[in-house]
Amino acid sequence: MIRHAIIYQFTGPTPALAALEQAAAAHPARAPGPPEPSTIGFGPLPSGDQLRHVAGLIALSVRQERRLVPSYAIASRLTAASREVEVATGQPLKGLALRAARQEIYTALLAQALTTATSCLLVIDPTAGWLLVATPSRQRAEAAVSLLRHALDSLPVRPWVKDPAVLAQTMAAWIAGQARPAELSLDDDVQWSDASGQVRARGEIDLAELCATQHGRLPAHLRVTWNEVVTFTLYADGRLGRLDFAPGLDSEAPAFDADLTLEGGSLRDVLDGLSAHVPGDAP
Prior knowledge:
The structure is a single chain. By secondary structure, this protein is an alpha+beta fold. The protein has helices spanning 17-26, 71-89, 95-110, 138-152, 164-175, 207-211, 255-275; strands spanning 6-10, 38-43, 51-54, 57-68, 114-125, 130-134, 157-159, 184-194, 197-202, 218-226, 230-235, 240-245. Among the domains are: 71-110, no CATH class; 164-275, no CATH class. 35% of the residues lie in helices and 30% in strands. The strands form two sheets. Strands 1, 2, 3, 4, 5, 6 and 7 form a seven-stranded antiparallel beta sheet that branches. A five-stranded antiparallel beta sheet has the order 9-8-10-11-12, with helices on one face. The model is unreliable at 195-199 and 201-206 (pLDDT under 50).
């Protein structure tokens, strides 16, 4: 269910369940009208609910719908319009007239455009003070957080990692065998980055030996396993990618509730543990 995660940390009180229910009900997802390029709102979860409260975790879904207007369609119509004007007046469209024509063409095409929709899961852990957006896209995560902030009037959160350089230095220390959490094991997949470019290594390698040859490069991402429960790629900016959870015990709970309990609980342990070992980013 959760395969990628962008993490935010609450810096103030977490929203009450009743406030979240009211916010989701007041801002439902809907299709964009003819003049709107896109809309965003709270859509149904896989369980069918608009909000789900399970095992101390609160889940919502943000759905964004966009009208697709291909740039080539605008360009071809704009070229044709400019040629018509040039034939009639001897001068092609330019300046304000060109911009006005482009906007007119875009508005006309927008009303006929096909719509595409994307959804992402939001998970709030009020006890631990985390907000997780299940997407690899920073832009999509920020849009979801902005919607929640607007719906609640206030949302005191910040990105979990304040300084990517600090986490990159911490990952380099782990590779070198220094101050690595006991729960953390390293897989053979790491990418280094500096101003001159990126170097990636994976497979049968000695990470510590290879790290010593990087001459000041810092890891951009590192594949790790936490407590033999969840394996993921940890990025220097704090993103978690390619999450792979160990199977849980059989449960009679609905599938969504069981997945949320297992994955949300595992990520709570991961985030609390990592934060305790990343200087300057602990709660």
